[in-house]
Write a structure and sequence with these properties.
The protein has 4 helices and 8 strands, in the order E-E-E-H-E-E-H-E-H-H-E-E. A 6-stranded mixed β-sheet has the order 3-1-5-4-7-8, sandwiched between helices. The protein has a two-stranded antiparallel sheet with strand order 2-6. Helix 3 packs antiparallel against helix 4. The N terminus is likely disordered.
Length: 174
């Protein structure tokens, strides 16, 4: 006598995607930063309260559809009170995820030269930024974090936007 098949041993039937929802698209963290100089060519750098070392104005791109350029402008105004009117994309850097960080994409914009008067009006976001200064490129490179230092070094030597992975040029990408 044949035993009836129970529901656990039945072969699964294909649903052709009709009953299950599609998987969520991948989420890649992204941030944007601003390179702002004074008339003497010194770079504006900021000392954050929440991490070691110095950085440039910028931060995370909001997940609500904000663009990298919008994030660059918003974060610069929030962190130091400067209104960015124009910029040129100078670097895109992909960071590989690691066990202690999610990785992501970093966009870097050259936002040009600001007048001495505009830079004298810097207003720091005290909850995130404790200090600021203008530094020559070589001094700034010593003070900035490793990944940002590599980005800045690569794009400072280029007339065009550079693509990097983990702060380093990629063979075959011009």
């Amino acid at each position: 006598m044949r035993r009836p098949r129970d529901s656990h041993s039945a072969r699964p039937q294909p649903d052709h995607g009709l009953t299950e929802s599609a998987p969520d698209p991948p989420r890649i963290p992204a941030s944007a930063g601003a390179l702002i100089c004074d008339p003497g060519g010194r770079l504006l750098i900021l000392k954050p309260t929440y991490k070691k070392g110095w950085t440039i104005p910028g931060g995370q791109i909001d997940a609500d559809g904000e663009s990298p350029w919008e994030a660059c402008r918003r974060e610069t105004e929030e962190e130091c009170g400067l209104v960015v009117e124009r910029g040129r994309l100078v670097c895109v850097d992909f960071l590989t995820p690691k066990p202690d960080r999610p990785g992501g994409v970093r966009f870097l914009f050259d936002c040009g030269t600001f007048s001495a008067a505009a830079l004298a009006g810097v207003r720091l976001q005290e909850s995130e930024i404790e200090d600021h200064r203008l530094a020559k490129l070589d001094e700034a490179l010593e003070l900035l974090s490793g990944p940002l230092r590599r980005r800045l070094s690569q794009c400072a030597a280029s007339e065009r936007c550079v693509y990097l992975e983990n702060g380093r040029p990629v063979a075959g990408v011009q």
